[in-house]
Structure formats: structure tokens, C-alpha cells
Design goal:
Elements (H helix, E strand, L loop, with lengths): L2 E8 L8 H8 L3 E10 L7 H9 L3 E4 L9 H16 L4 E5 L6 H9 L3 E6 L5 H6 L2 E4 H5 L5 H5 L5 H17 L4 E2 H11 L13 H5 L5 E6 L2 E6 L2 H14 L5 E2 H11 L13 H7 L3 E6 L2 E6 L3
Parallel strand pairs: 1-2, 1-4, 2-3, 4-5, 5-6
Antiparallel strand pairs: 7-9, 8-9, 10-12, 11-12
Protein name: NYN domain-containing protein
InterPro entries: LOTUS-like, NYN, OST-HTH/LOTUS_dom
GO molecular function: RNA nuclease activity
Length: about 300
């Protein structure tokens, strides 16, 4: 049975152009049983929303701005959310806003065991993002182009994601369990509610993972598991062989044979290289030099 969600939108802090992407995204999680939007509909600021309400069947909740500096819209949304929460008629909430005023509300809903999906523009403070089970940037749903400056600064650096994945896989391995792709995605969202593969230009988590040299995907029918690549162990093994070769080093061909005997599934293409020699040269402190008719692998500077 699909989960039921209450969609509550803060019109004062979100552009009306995102309404279709919001509804499309939320449909992935379940059925929307409440659709309400809060704002002062006498204000010109919300005029663009008025055109969308009827076509999207969203109920507008009028809140006049009686006092300067007081946000009546936030209060009305919070009160409605708590009323819906106590009726026990939904499994989760989607709160759409780009400010941090609903951080406490999101935390309170999660304390009751319900799912909170947050949506907001890139200006949304981290406090609200972290308070949600899942947070999605609206610009990603709209497919808007980022500037070079924005693209250079992601919410979560890819190296941080890779390190988190390595830790998850290692924990499962130590407990005698393999790591499925679906489980990995869920664990990442628990760590980073605003993690979204679309931030990195991908539509699938599996495509993003293919970028990480420390990680390999294994497909068994429709099931995809994630494991650590043998890269670090392979590099350690190469260093040991080169060290054993002394000052002369070890022949590249012999090194390749030893490596394949040790690691049956070793393939340089898994590490992003088309040639074995190029892979060996990528290992820090190692070089390949011609000696007569042989390519000798040794430590650089020896």
C-alpha cells in the first residue's frame, strides 16, 4: 500500500515555477492526500501562485500579514501540520520552504515516527535540510543549469560520499553481510538527507558509484551489490614485488603475471586505464623504465 503524504507549501519562500516538479517528485514516495499552500493572497508577491492553485488542486490558506516582522504563514502551516499529525491519517509530510523556520516542526514529526521530505531552493539553510529524512533541492527537479561557481561547490563533496560508502561496506563486511545498492542509497540518505545524485549530473546512484575507484558494482540478475575494489590491496602487492626486486626492480611482464595469479579478477579497465603499464605508472612512487628489451618496474629515483 502506498504511503500517504501531506504536502504543505510555504508560498512566501518558494517560487511557483516549481509546482509541477514538486508534485512529480512527491509521487515517487506515495499518494498526496493533503495539498495546502500558505501565504498572503492579497500580496502581489504571491500572484504567480494563484494561477497554479486550481490546475494543481491545491487548497490556499489565507494568512494576512498583520504585524511587520511576524510571519503568520509559518504559524498557520505549523498549526495545520500538528492537527494533521494528531489525526493519524498520513504516513509522512512534505514541507516545501527555503527557510529554517520549520526545522523544529520537521524534528517533531520525525519523533512521531513519520517521514519528513523537505524541498527548497539552494538557499535553504542546512538546519532544515538536516532535520528532514530526505531533502531535495528544487533547482535539481527543474533541471536548471548551475553556474561554474555553483557547480564547483557541492553540498557534499564526492570524496566525502566515497569515504562514507567505504565505511558502510566495511561495517557490513565485518558483520558477514554484503551491501546492496538499495540499502546503500537508504544509508546515505540517513547520513546526508540532502544527498541527491542529480547534484553530480547523474540520474542513477549506480552511475555515480562508477566514478569511485574504491568501489565496484556486482550485478546478479536484478540485484546489484556494492563491494570494495581491490585497488589498495593490489597497489600494496605491487609495491611488495617491486621492493623484492631490489635496485633493478621487476620486469613488467612478470609483474603482470604475478598480479593475475594473486587476483583472478584483476582488470586495469576497472581502474580507469587501457594499458597495464599506465596503471603501474599511476601508483605513487613507482616508475617504469626501459632496460634493454625489458620494461623494468622500480621505485622512482632508484
Amino acid at each position: 500500500m502506498d504511503k500517504r503524504f501531506a504536502l504543505l507549501i510555504d508560498a512566501d519562500n518558494v517560487s511557483a515555477k516549481y509546482i509541477d516538479p514538486i508534485l512529480d517528485e512527491l509521487s515517487k514516495y506515495g499518494n498526496v492526500t493533503y495539498k495546502r499552500i500558505y501565504g498572503d493572497w492579497t500580496s502581489r508577491q504571491n500572484s504567480s501562485w494563484k494561477e497554479e492553485l486550481l490546475s494543481s488542486s491545491i487548497t490556499p490558506i489565507q494568512q494576512f500579514s498583520y504585524t511587520t516582522g511576524k510571519n503568520a504563514t509559518d504559524s498557520a502551516l505549523i498549526i495545520d501540520a500538528m492537527d494533521i499529525l494528531y489525526t493519524s491519517t498520513v504516513d509522512g509530510f512534505c514541507i516545501v520552504s527555503s527557510d529554517s523556520d520549520f526545522t523544529k516542526l520537521a524534528s517533531r514529526i520525525r519523533e512521531s515516527g513519520l517521514t519528513v521530505i523537505g524541498m527548497g531552493e539552494k538557499k535553504t539553510p542546512m538546519a532544515f535540510r538536516k532535520a528532514c529524512d530526505i531533502f531535495t533541492r528544487l533547482e535539481l527537479l527543474q533541471g536548471e543549469e548551475e553556474t561554474k561557481e555553483e557547480a564547483a561547490v557541492k553540498d557534499i563533496d564526492k570524496s566525502t560520499i566515497e569515504d562514507a560508502i567505504v565505511k558502510i561496506i566495511t561495517e557490513n563486511t565485518n558483520n558477514g553481510r554484503e551491501t546492496g545498492l538499495a540499502e546503500l542509497g537508504n544509508r546515505l540518505l540517513k547520513l546526508y538527507p540532502d544527498f541527491d545524485v542529480r547534484s553530480y549530473g547523474y540520474s542513477l546512484l549506480s552511475k555515480l558509484l562508477e566514478e569511485f575507484p574504491k568501489i565496484r558494482l556486482l550485478k546478479k540478475g536484478n540485484y546489484v551489490s556494492v563491494k570494495l575494489a581491490e585497488g589498495n590491496n593490489v597497489e600494496d602487492f605491487v609495491v611488495e614485488l617491486v621492493k623484492a626486486g631490489g635496485r633493478e626492480g621487476v620486469d613488467l611482464g612478470i609483474l603482470g603475471q604475478e598480479l593475475h595469479q594473486k587476483y583472478d579478477n584483476f582488470n586495469v579497465q576497472d581502474y580507469g586505464f587501457s594499458q597495464f603499464k599506465k596503471y603501474i605508472r599511476s601508483i605513487k612512487g613507482i616508475e617504469v623504465r626501459k632496460s634493454g628489451n625489458q620494461n623494468m618496474v622500480r621505485f622512482a629515483g632508484k
